[in-house]
Amino acid sequence: MSSQDYLSWWPFADDADTPPARPAPMFGNRAPTPAAGPTPPLIPTTPTEDPLESAALREAVQVFANADYLTATYDLNARGMAELYDAVVVPQWSRPFAEVLLSQLLVLPRPADARVLDVACGTGYPTLDIARMMGQGATVLGVDLWRAAIERGRRKAAEAWLRTVTFQQGDIAHLTLPENEFDIVTCNVGYTSFADRSRALAVMTRALKPDGWMVLTMPLQTACREFLDLYHNVLSELQLTTCTDALVALVRGKPTVSTARANLERTGLHVEREVTDRFTLRFADARDFFTSPVIALGFMVGWRAIVPDVALRRLVFNEIERRLNLRSAEEGGLSFEVPYLCLGARKV
Q1: Averaged pLDDT, 189-199
Q2: Integer angstrom CA distances of residue 202 from 99, 114, 179, 226, 265
Q3: Percent of the chain with pLDDT over 70
Q4: Where are the domains of the chain?
Q5: pLDDT at position 11
Q6: What is the distance, to the nearest Å, from the Cα of residue 275 to the centroid of all Cα atoms in its chain?
Q7: Gap between the Cα atoms of 296 and 226, Å rounded
Q8: How far apart are CA 13 and CA 18, in angstroms?
Q9: Are 87 and 49 in contact, with CB atoms under 8 Å apart?
């Protein structure tokens, strides 16, 4: 298959008007090298760190480094997982999105006694930063389904003496929140993880005051397209038509600028702010890519479900690994671009 044919399958919006990617290197800014085998992040212990927390973190790192990424499942409430999220996923995935979200909050109307709801708050980023930005008169409620993350968020807020922040565990789509309660609702990267996006948006909109603002960030449909194109190429060459169709359906379900705007406006919001940008994820080799917490937690479940039969899945991914490692050897590492969107919408 020619290079042109290989790229021609993509039937979706390319979000081509997003700016050039800015680097967000994986695993502690180490330079990508064609290293053999896994290269997990090693989190050094410093005199200011809690030794028990550091040990838990190292245990969690090894869970990912040693995993069979084609079949592994992860207990997010297990020892060290919330710490790993803070140490690895937040700086390498959540932060580029949150920086844009926080910059948008700076220019929105912010009553001195504002009430803010942060949905899919994880371990408290950017929840705690929002609380600092809003000031002592405001209150911030962080909501997330993940129990260990909520517990860690509470500890971090207490350690930072942020008494204006509270956390609640629960699925936003099924929470009963007061109507017209919040001046601002935020959601950093959580939108694509909602099982029922329409219902989650409806609950969030109902909780927002008239003229209140909702600010969301999300990766766009073309995130990690370098991998998706390769995946599609391998499936096509193996004539796995059903799997190819499943991959197209998976991609089609991811947001574009236009579909995200339309979903917000259907709930009674008026989109008034739109920011697009992109950053780059970098890895040493294929193993580094597939076992990284960002990919393992955020993408692999969907990607591997494309090929339900495990034996066939191994065949497909062995070939993908081979080609990725060839590319890594030629280019000194692997790079994957993540275009993303931030929308600011007012309740009318």
Answers
A1: 94
A2: 25, 21, 11, 34, 11
A3: 85
A4: 3-27+43-347
A5: 54
A6: 17
A7: 17
A8: 12
A9: no
Yes or no: say if 130 and 116 are a contact pair by the CB < 8 Å rule. yes
What is the Cα–Cα distance from 83 to 328, expressed in whole angstroms?
30
- What are 276-325's pLDDT values in tens digits? 999 999 999 999 999 999 999 999 999 999 999 999 999 999 999 999 99
**Per-residue 3-state assignment (H helix, E strand, C coil) for the chain:** CCHHHHHCCCCCCCCCCCCCCEECCCCCCCCCCCCCCCCCCCCCCCCCCCHHHHHHHHHHHHHHHCCCCCCCCCCCCCCCHHHHHHHHHHHHHHHHHHHHHHHHHHCCCCCCCCEEEEECCCCCCCHHHHHHHHCCCCEEEEEECCHHHHHHHHHHHHHCCCCCEEEEECCHHHCCCCCCCEEEEEEECCHHHCCCHHHHHHHHHHHEEEEEEEEEEEECCCCCHHHHHHHHHHHHHCCCHHHHHHHHHHHHCCCCHHHHHHHHHHCCEEEEEEEEEEEEEEECCHHHHHHCHHHHHHCHHHHHHCCCCHHHHHHHHHHHHHHHHHHHHHHCCEEEEEEEEEEEEEEC
Tokens, residue 125: 């980023």
State how far the Cα of 342 lies from the Cα of 98, in Å rounded to an integer: 9
How confident is residue 9, by pLDDT bands cut at 50, 70 and 90? low
Q: Residues 37, 287: contact at Cβ < 8 Å?
A: yes
- Superfamily in which the 3-27+43-347 domain is placed by CATH: Vaccinia Virus protein VP39 (3.40.50.150)
The residue behind tokens 């005051």 is 209
| pLDDT of the residue at 90 | 97
Residue 295 · residue 324 · CB < 8 Å: no
| C-alpha to C-alpha distances, 227 to 16, 259, 297, 336, nearest whole angstrom | 17, 23, 16, 7
Output phi, psi for 139, to 5 deg: -130, 145
Residue with tokens 């004539």: 239
Q: How far apart are CA 188 and CA 100, in angstroms?
A: 10
Q: Is the pLDDT of residue 210 over 80?
A: yes
Kindly report the pTM of this predicted structure: 0.87
